[in-house]
Prior knowledge:
The complex is a heterodimer of chains A (319) and B (543).
Chain A: H1 19-25, H2 27-45, E1 56-57, H3 63-69, E2 71-72, H4 76-83, H5 87-105, H6 107-118, H7 122-133, H8 140-151, H9 157-164, H10 179-204, H11 208-216, H12 221-246, H13 253-259, H14 265-268, H15 271-281, H16 285-312
Antiparallel strand pairs in A: 1-2
Chain B: H1 6-26, H2 33-37, E1 64-69, H3 85-99, E2 102-107, H4 113-123, E3 129-133, H5 147-150, H6 154-160, E4 179-180, E5 190-193, H7 194-199, H8 208-221, E6 233-234, H9 240-246, E7 258-259, E8 265-266, H10 274-286, H11 299-308, E9 313-315, H12 318-322, H13 325-331, E10 337-338, E11 353-354, E12 361-365, H14 372-384, H15 386-394, E13 401-403, H16 409-412, E14 414-417, H17 438-441, E15 445-446, H18 455-462, E16 470-471, H19 482-488, H20 492-508, H21 516-525, H22 528-542
Parallel strand pairs in B: 1-2, 1-3, 6-9, 11-16, 14-15
Antiparallel strand pairs in B: 3-12, 4-12, 5-9, 5-10, 7-8, 13-14
Helix pairs in contact in B: 6-14, 10-20, 14-15, 20-21
Amino acid sequence: xxxxxxxxxxxxxxxxxxxxxxxxxxxxxxxxxxxxxxxxxxxxxxxxxxxxxxxxxxxxxxxxxxxxxxxxxxxxxxxxxxxxxxxxxxxxxxxxxxxxxxxxxxxxxxxxxxxxxxxxxxxxxxxxxxxxxxxxxxxxxxxxxxxxxxxxxxxxxxxxxxxxxxxxxxxxxxxxxxxxxxxxxxxxxxxxxxxxxxxxxxxxxxxxxxxxxxxxxxxxxxxxxxxxxxxxxxxxxxxxxxxxxxxxxxxxxxxxxxxxxxxxxxxxxxxxxxxxxxxxxxxxxxxxxxxxxxxxxxxxxxxxxxxxxxxxxxxxxxx
Amino acid sequence: xxxxxxxxxxxxxxxxxxxxxxxxxxxxxxxxxxxxxxxxxxxxxxxxxxxxxxxxxxxxxxxxxxxxxxxxxxxxxxxxxxxxxxxxxxxxxxxxxxxxxxxxxxxxxxxxxxxxxxxxxxxxxxxxxxxxxxxxxxxxxxxxxxxxxxxxxxxxxxxxxxxxxxxxxxxxxxxxxxxxxxxxxxxxxxxxxxxxxxxxxxxxxxxxxxxxxxxxxxxxxxxxxxxxxxxxxxxxxxxxxxxxxxxxxxxxxxxxxxxxxxxxxxxxxxxxxxxxxxxxxxxxxxxxxxxxxxxxxxxxxxxxxxxxxxxxxxxxxxxxxxxxxxxxxxxxxxxxxxxxxxxxxxxxxxxxxxxxxxxxxxxxxxxxxxxxxxxxxxxxxxxxxxxxxxxxxxxxxxxxxxxxxxxxxxxxxxxxxxxxxxxxxxxxxxxxxxxxxxxxxxxxxxxxxxxxxxxxxxxxxxxxxxxxxxxxxxxxxxxxxxxxxxxxxxxxxxxxxxxxxxxxxxxxxxxxxxxxxxxxxxxxxxxxxxxxxxxxxxxxxxx
Lengths: 319, 543
């Protein structure tokens, strides 16, 4: 019989040690994390000071010195952004495209992983996995080139089919009715396979005894999936959802930048593409920093909110 | 418990040290003024003059001037990947020999040139010369006035004087902020394919009606095949090129703002007749005269289609055609665009093309330039002799180009490229040119490798000032201060954006023309009153 551990008497407890003692004791481990720490300090935290230009009238040619010496204008750039009649359109597009991608794109890898998990033919499973992973390794430029070619009115496959069916060719990428759908579909196609890996990995961690017990109880494969597999991967699903919500306001900047045109700005222009144009083309660094700061603030609120909701639902949060 | 053996521990620590050091090294890179000068960056060998790695061999390093070549020069066929490094170095070496200055020319990318310029200016790297609108920079102290420097550059001053371009580069206080590159020109002619006209027994269209007849006939004939003939092509993104080519055939005041009867300056979109122009463009779009995707195309795509020989007529910047007509002929033997001097007349009896006024874009000199005298002497050298200009644009004489065999070729500046078969090279594409603009360009008469008169050269020499074939707008010599516009019209960006987006929708039919009044109301809602007020104020001041 295992003996219960007795609390040590106060005189036997180790004396309290200072931080330096532990730093010295675990110096090897601290040295190992040094590059990572430095990376975050140098490339992530120090540049954050540049955020101050959102409240200043900074010109890109002023260099580092200009961050300190440029004129303080307070909330001027924020006011200008919210005064613009396009600010709401930008926020709406960003949220709508992201939510559409989240709504359709987030469950897709989970469903694929669940389906792959049920496949017993190993060769077939590997072929499906390889085919679905491949698009992930194509750069966004290539994928967008493929989309342009497929949807082109000049011999594009989709329009060829439409013409064969007696329909007029459609300029899909210039039509506000189709543009968002193209974004969502191509995004799912490119990311579904790769996204399923993490769920497949989570499924391997589920205790096989649970499946055996369910089989003994006469559960069907659908019941096993519903009552064992899905709850088993739910902690991973909730963490992935929080991560995804954190990126909600990025909306797929590269993809849109490569595909959009003024004809579809009304449905496709995002905060990030607007920031790109105003910042890099029109050189309004302070103005675009202000917009980005606002975006980051909203993203932080979304992450905190999702984390809170996940915990309320009894799932894992990220902290 | 020992997680790692001593050997593994040592290896892990070594990795950690290497990562830390590389990280620190990565963020400690100094501004690369020397790298800008290093000929190795331009593909030069160790014999180049300004190598920072061999100061002992070259104790007196020549001044280095860094040029961001975003003038748009060097867009001919084969230039996509830029100059061959060896050819570029030959030109740089020659310029160094002649001027004592090493010109570090960095070619702007075909797309995203402005973004790269912004990054270069923000990065703190050496950047001395670039092309842009001086009004964007002069108030922030980014560029330097040239008044004193120009005293040492008589060739530059004299070259531009007869063209009347200095006022466009001068602020109200008399400071000159750049070397001009533009004069009032006629850069948006309608070029029509002569071979197609012959095929259909038609002559060059003189009226919009005749042009339309040609466009619809060519659409039906489909001479390029597979339904891929493009009857009319224009530059993408907006309607600017279409407006320049056609709008004065519909709007009495031509392409540009107009002075209304109430004495106020108003935008083109409010002018009587503009809706008729839009209706015609919309009809052409619906009927397939304009390609469905044209508005979404970048300039490279437009040039590519012209070069392929798929285009029957153009309403685009002239050099999109003139620089690519040779490529087109190689792809479609016998293809040629005709030059019709008299232009096309619109339904209102006016010439349909509007003259493009000179612009405030020019060659600008950075206020951070360490050797402004060297920079201006370099520019002056290029303007001082036509062969120097030719070196910047086409490379070395007798290596990249030569005088033609025609009589008085040297006197008449008749040139031909030297083909590879004759030991020549075609690997240089205008990287080092500093003298873009009509004063020097119009002196050249170039022939292509087939011995045919180069269309670009012909157009520049004889037709870029065909003012009789165009409508002259009333504000031809008014240069609005764009910086003051930005400052005084808080919603200028919104107004411009509404105009661009909504006009594209009217063109494609996404928005019906019956909604045009609502569009105008939207413009007023976005602050058009302050736009009108500011433009009227500036106009009264400037005129």
